[in-house]
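Narrative summary of target 7.
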Amino acid sequence: MTRAPLITGPFLLCALANFLQGMAFNLYLHLPGFLQQLGAGEVQIGFIFGLTAAVAIVVRPWLGRAMDSHGRRRLILAGGALNVVVCCLYLTVGRLGPWIYAVRVGHGLAEAALFAAFFTQAADLVPASRCTGGLALFGVSGMLPISFGGLMGDAILARADYAAVFAASVVLAASSLALSLPLRDAVLSSGELPNRGFVAAALQRDLLPVWFVGTVFATALAAYFTFLKTFVLATGIGSVGGFFTAYALSAVSLRLFFAWLPERVGPKRVLFPALAVLALGLVLLARTTRASEVVAAGILCGLGHGFVFPILLGLVVERARAAERGAALSVFTALFDGGVLLGGPSLGAVIRFGSYPVMFNVAALLVLTGSTIFALWDRRCGAG
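Modeled conformation, tokenized:
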């Protein structure tokens, strides 16, 4: 029997638009350096990033309802337009104060809309029988910017200042918006179970363990997405571009050549080893003394991320009702804002009162403990 194709014209267009907005977003991996230049410490940087995440979490219920009621395209266009405006506003920030917080609020709104809507659009476009593999491939459009965004920022800062980084993000955000204009909402099959509303979708029993482990995963990611820049500046070891290039390339390679593995052997049989590899990468970051070890840690963390994210996303799509997909994926994407909100200030405090190695070890322990709890909880829910 012929398998339904994954790579279609609408899928590629959606992926390219997501890639460009991801490039704009990942240039802000260098934002902690800009904030530090203005006089911010690790805890304040964590709170500034946490504010963006808090705003994104607050608007998720509305985003989920909007996607399920009015379609994905409207949200993609609105979020894309706001993203262009917000990236322009970074050029007006000259000191620490209320304005940087206001700009970060706007950025949180834009990214919440784009992150949720692009991945929901992708979930609509891939065949149900190939959901995990299809979403893993779509995720390449989000992983590559982690590498290229870090490298592009490094290259710009070697020749110019942070204003040039922000200007580049404006161009990329505008390009993503332009490519989003031809997107059309997919036609979903009729006859599905009715939409019960955002709260019922969020509290569905077999999704609760997924929300938990997703939050654990996202909180651990804050260890390097928020603090790798200041770690490099404080220790002089490695570079942001080197870590995230290794990170993204390992994750992308895994998805390009082994996207079939979770569907072949079972998603959770791949999920738990992937979480363990992520924890190992964090432990290596805690012990690194050379640039090559930072790159090796990036490879391990990227391999973990390469499978964990699409597997969890696939579990959400599989377990949620089709009519509630927008709501369910809004919750899922909100977990990553929640991770920044939890991980930014708390891990920043660990650095302040301990050290970077202690912080990376704490994040690794969180991953291992959370994985164990998820395994037991999911089994009790009868999910296998």
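The chain has a mean pLDDT of 85.
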